[in-house]
Amino acid sequence: MPHAPPLGALLSRFAAGSPLTCEPVDQGLLNRGYRLCTTRGRYFLKHHFDPDTADPAAIARQHRATQRLADLGVPVAPPLPGRDGRTVVVVGGSAYALHPWIDGRHRHGGQLGTAQCGRLGALLGAVHAGLERVMPARENHTGAHAAGTASRGAPDGAGPRAESADPGDTFALIDDLLDRVRSHQPAGPFDQLARHRLLERRALLEQHAGRRPPRGGSVGWVHGDFHPFNVLYKDDVPAAIVDWDRLGVQPRAEEAVRAAAIFFVRPTGTLDLPKVRAYARAYRRTTGATPSELAAAVHRVWWERLNDFWMLRWHYERGDTRADPQFPAASALAVWWTREYDAVCDAFTD
Questions:
Q1: Could you read off the pLDDT of 133-155 as tens digits, one per residue?
Q2: What pTM, to 2 d.p., does this model score?
Q3: Are 69 and 61 contacting, i.e. CB atoms less than 8 angstroms apart?
Q4: Separation CA 256–CA 277 (nearest Å)
Q5: CA pair distance 96, 56, nearest whole angstrom
Q6: 201 vs 170: CA distance, rounded Å
Q7: Which residues 6+ apart lie within 8 Å of 298 measured at CB?
């Protein structure tokens, strides 16, 4: 298999038996994962490949956080310790971790009923409240990854209380991307949609440039990548929150809004507002977040989306097309959100 992990060297560090099968797990934009069966059971082997998140000290911090959350009853899948008690194994300069295999499936917001949407909001609230308990402020934040736009796998995240996007920078980026679109020949449907959305977004930014928000609100430890591919369900119940690579210190309410914009976006680029409302009410009830905090977070995430072109940057700057299927709905959402701004804000704060 491509990029096959060094199973012999790895399993010798764990009391996990001898390998029987090892299959790549397709989902995920940044790191590599494998479904591993051995003579002692089934495991998820994670290769921390992304250079932004592969620091062993940062990975160990993530592992401590998940173990502490598990002790509080939050559904997570903490890694297994090696023979030396460490959960991070470095082989050939690459970092690996071994987790128990969790049977389950991913569920998008369209597959969740109203009560389940409330349960999802309460789950994220429990994560934030739990991290507040187990990751005290005095703990060293060095290496804690910025969440920012990372919840969509974006390469550029915003730091704690980061400045919001400067529309002047965004206009320059739009011009550069339009040049790249024009030079891509022969032009296909993706290029045509990209050009349409870039011109549309430039017009929206010209209209709303004066609404640039101030720095973010109350910060705390967040998961940083809370979306459907990182929540496993068994039947109708969340079985595990996985992929803690983006654990970091960020405005918490913004993660709640960002996650809802991923879970509850329809293929047409609109949000299912009744489900958002159930989710947000449960999140506020669990965390004690106020409607004004959520309103400010809605404004910042809306602005972030209005200035965000990471999918097009991956496509045209990197030649990486893995995020292309997400682009139609994500790009339409920014336009719809601008038009329905008051209704979206009301869904998060009512």
A1: 999 774 444 445 443 343 334 44
A2: 0.89
A3: no
A4: 12
A5: 9
A6: 10
A7: 257, 344, 345, 348, 349
